[in-house]
Write a structure and sequence with these properties.
328 residues, alpha+beta, Beta-lactamase, six-stranded antiparallel β-sheet, two-stranded antiparallel ribbon, 19% strand
Length: 328
């Protein structure tokens, strides 16, 4: 909290059992505690869900990691014949990140996005209207949300169902993730949740504006899911426990896409201070920050969500908590 959080919630699972903690307030100007089973926008942790579905389709022979974007989405991406699904998954496609074309806080024009519905086609067009940031696909890591918007479209082409429907059918329902939803264009967070805020410039001042309710289509397959710390830990335990993809593909997920890199197929690779390597994902969903990591043997997980006040930076405090959870 001292590092810059309005509220925080965490769950740690290890051989000793499950520990849950919460701190701060669920909304500014109140004394209401953050619910321990809070739902929140998980941002880019969504990418691990999308990657998992993609690899399930690979296992079924419906997709191949060497398939090109051009094969599945002909004419959509210039140079798509040189960009494979593997390059999308590990962020080595070199494609421009469409998020860099949008207005973001503290610019007040950002608030016009709150209820706007974005289509994947719009977001992809914004990306490919810019030159690639890397000219030779597959050689260099360059994180781009555009990659996962494309994967969402490819999943739909391969299955006839949206990526959200496939995530629900293949992950959410089988694992009974009752606090997890793929909201689409719904602006609400169902169930107990803290409020999230964004800084907005108002004249010479910057004020925090409640941005809990918003249309998440701007994040799409790159970051729209809502979940809980318990559900995220259950998801990663199932993934690394071999319940979602076979061991051969799990090995591919956990292998860095570039020499010395720290990103596999939908997973960050994180080295703790005590030398334990953990895998998972993190990052913000505008008004919410979330982190979720697991050991490769699936025996320990940590999930954390924070509603930041945007005046401080809770990253170091979260890193310290992750280290304490895995190294203690």
């Amino acid at each position: 909290m001292d590092a810059g959080a309005i509220g925080a919630v965490a769950e740690i699972r290890d051989r000793h059992g499950v520990v849950r903690g919460h701190s701060g307030v669920a909304a500014l100007d109140t004394h209401r505690a953050v619910p321990v089973q809070s739902r929140f926008r998980i941002g880019s942790i969504t990418k691990t869900f999308v990657a998992t579905v993609t690899l399930q389709l690979v296992d079924e022979g419906r997709l191949n990691l060497n398939d090109t974007v051009e094969k599945w989405l002909p004419g959509v991406v210039p140079g798509g014949d040189k960009i494979t699904l593997r390059y999308l998954l590990n962020h080595t496609s070199g494609l421009y990140d469409y998020l860099h074309t949008l207005t973001f806080p503290p610019d007040p024009a950002f608030l016009a996005y709150r209820s706007r519905t974005w289509t994947a086609e719009e977001l992809i067009h914004r990306a490919v209207s810019n030159p690639p940031v890397v000219k030779d696909p597959g050689k260099q890591f360059s994180y781009s949300n555009t990659n996962y918007i494309l994967l969402g479209e490819i999943i739909e082409k391969a299955t006839g169902r949206t990526y959200g429907e496939e995530i629900e059918r293949r992950i959410i329902r089988p694992l009974r993730l009752r606090g997890t939803t793929v909201p689409g264009t719904s602006e609400q967070i169902p169930g107990p949740h803290p409020h999230g805020y964004v800084p907005v410039r108002q004249g010479e001042d910057t004020q925090l504006v409640d941005y809990t309710e918003m249309n998440p289509s701007v994040m799409g397959a790159g970051g729209e899911i809502i979940s809980t710390t318990s559900d995220l830990n259950r998801f990663y335990a199932a993934l690394f426990g071999g319940r979602l993809v076979p061991s051969s593909l799990l090995d591919e997920m956990t292998e860095a896409g570039t020499d010395g890199g720290r990103y596999g197929l939908g997973l960050f690779i994180v080295r703790t201070t005590c030398g334990i390597t953990v895998y998972g994902h993190d990052r913000d969903a505008l008004a919410y920050d979330a982190w979720a990591y697991s050991t490769k043997d699936g025996r320990r997980q940590v999930a954390i969500a924070v509603t930041p006040d945007h005046a401080g930076n809770p990253d170091e405090a979260v890193d310290a908590l992750v280290d304490a959870a895995f190294c203690g």
